[in-house]
Amino acid sequence: MIIPFLMTTFVEERQVLTLNEFGNLIAIAQMTPGAVSMNASTYIGFLENGFWGALSASLGLICPTIFLSLTAVLMLNKWKDKPWITGLLKGARLGALGMIIYACFIFMDMSVFSMPIPWQSIWLFLTTAVWKPDGVFFVLVPELIIAITACLLTLKTKIPIIPMIIMAGIISGYIYS
Amino acid sequence: MSYIGRLWLLFITFFKIALFVIGGGLAMLPVIEQTFTRKHKWLTPEDILDMVIITQTVPGLIAVNSAVFVGRKVAGIGGALISVFGVVLPSVIIILSIAAFFSDLSSNNPIVIHAFSGIRACVTGVLIATAIRFMRQIVRTWIDGCCVILFSLLLISRVNPIYVIAISMCLGIITVHILNKHQIIFLKKDKS
To answer: Do A33 and B156 touch (CB under 8 A)?
Structure first.
C-alpha cells in the first residue's frame, strides 16, 4: 500500500524521481534486508535531503505505527478480562492460526515450488475433471530439502533459527558456485 | 534477567530479525516464538497469536507493530521503543551505505540470487514448524481444528484477512457466551 502512494507522490506530483529511478529504488529496497516500505522511504529521504532526510523519512514512517499499535496493545490489556473480549480473542486466535497456515502456503509458493500452487486449476479439475494448468508446476528439490531439514530441526532440536537461516544462505550460494 | 538485560535482548533480537530474516511480516514469527516463548518463557503462545491479530488489523508496518507488541509485553513502554529502534536500524544503516557508496547496485549476481532462495526455503521450513507447534498448543477440540482449517481455506480462496478475523471473532463470541450459557461447552475453559 505504501509503494503506490510513494510513487504518486514522488514521481507524478512532485517529480523528483523518474519512473525508471523509482523502479531501481524499489528493486534495491526489496533486495536489502528489512521491510520494503521502510527501505524505500529511507532511500527517498536520502535522495531528497541526505542523512537528515533519510532519518526524518524513516521517523515519519514509524511514528504513526508506534502510536497506533501502542494504543491497540494498551486497550487490549485494559479490556482483556471483559467476557466479550475473552470470547472475541478466543475466536480471533484461531483466525490468526489460520493466517499463519496461509502464510506457510504463500512462502512455499515463493520458495519450494516453481510457481504459485494453481488452486483455480485444481478447483476446476475437482468440479469438471478438466486439467488445464496455466504454467509448468514442479518442486525445486534443493529448496525442498532445505525447507524440510529446517522444519525438522526447529521441531526436534533447540538450534537457534538465525544461524540456521545464515547457514542455509551460505550452503545454497555455495552449491551454485 | 535484569531490566537492562531484557532491553538488550529485545534490541539484539529485533536487530538480527531485520538483518537476516527475509520475507517480512509473519516470517519473523518463528524467531520471536523461539526467543521469547521457548527460551525465556516471557510470552505464552496465546500472546504470540494476539500479536498476529494486532499486527494484521492495525495499519502500519508489520515489523514495527510486532516490535511494539513484544517489547511492551517483555519490558514495558521502554521495551517497545528499544525494539522498534532495533528493527529499524538495519534498514537505515544498509540503505544509507548503499546510497552513499553504490549508486547502481546490480541484482543479477547468480550466487546472491541462489543464497536468497536458500534463505527463503529455510524460512519456509521454520515457519511450517512454528505453525505445527502452535496447532499442538492452541487447538484443543476437533471444533477448533475445523475452524482453523475453514479459516485457512477462506484465506487461500482470497477472502480479505480482515473479514476472516471478523468472522472468527464473531464465532468466538458465539461459542464462548451463548453456548456456555446453555451448558453446551465447545471450547475448553481457560485457567483465566
So the answer is: no
SS3 A139: strand
* Amino acid at residue number B44: T
* Rounded-to-10 torsion of CA A6, A30, B57, B6: -120
Q: Can you read off the three cell numbers belonging to residue B186?
A: 465447545
Q: Which of A79, A96, A161, A155 is nearest to B138 (CA)?
A: A96
Ordered mean pLDDT values, 10 residues apiece, chain A (177 residues): 81 82 79 81 86 90 90 87 82 91 89 81 81 77 91 90 90 85
Q: Which residues of B touch A25 (CB under 8 A)?
A: none
Q: Dihedral sign, CA of A154, A95, B64, A83? A: negative
Please report how the helices B161-173 and A83-111 are oriented relative to each other, as an axis angle in degrees rounded to 10: 140
Closest CA to B46 of B59, B55, B33, B31: B33
CB contact under 8 A, A94 and B116: no
- Cα distance between residue A46 and residue A21, in whole Å: 14
Q: With CB atoms and an 8 Å threshold, state whether B96 touches A46.
A: yes
Cα–Cα distance for residue pair B151/B153, rounded to 1 Å = 5
ipTM passes above 0.90: no
Task: Give residue limits of the domains in chain A.
Answer: 1-79
Q: What residue type is A7 in one-letter code?
A: M
Contact status of A25 with chain B (Cβ, < 8 Å): no
Q: Are A165 and B90 within 8 A, CB to CB?
A: no
- The answer to whether the beta carbons of residues B10 and B75 sit under 8 Å apart is yes
Q: Where are the alpha helices (DSSP H) in A112-140?
A: 119-128
| Cell numbers placing B184 | 453446551
Q: Which of A98, A152, A177 sits opposite B152 (nearest CB)?
A: A98
If DSSP states are collapsed to H, E and C, what string results for A97-118? HHHHHHHHHHHHHHHCECCCCC
pLDDT in tens, B88-124: 998 888 888 877 776 555 556 778 788 888 888 999 9
